[in-house]
Amino acid sequence: MGKKVIVAKPGLDGHDRQAKVIARVLKDNGYDVVYTGIRQTPSQIAQTVLQESADVVVLNNLSGAHLELFPETVRKIKELGISPLMIGTGVIPAEDQEQLLNNGLDVVFGPGTPPQKIVEAIKEWENTTH
Amino acid sequence: MGKYNALINGVKKGSQAAIAQSISIIEKNDDDRLELIKALYSEESCNTPLIGLTGFGGAGKSSLVGALAEVLLKQDKKVGIMAVDPTSPKSGGSLLGDRIRLQYLFPNNKLFFRSFANKGALGGLSPILMESVKVLEVAGFNYIFLETVGIGQSEVDITHFADVVVLVMSPGLGDEIQFLKGGIMEIADVLVMNKMDMPNANISLAALEAYSRLLDQPPTVVPVSVIARQNIDLLLKTIDEVYENKRSTGYVEKLRMERSNALYQAWVMQMLRPIVDQRYTSEEIPYVAAKSIADRMRRCIDDR
Question: ipTM of the predicted structure?
Answer without folding.
Answer: 0.93
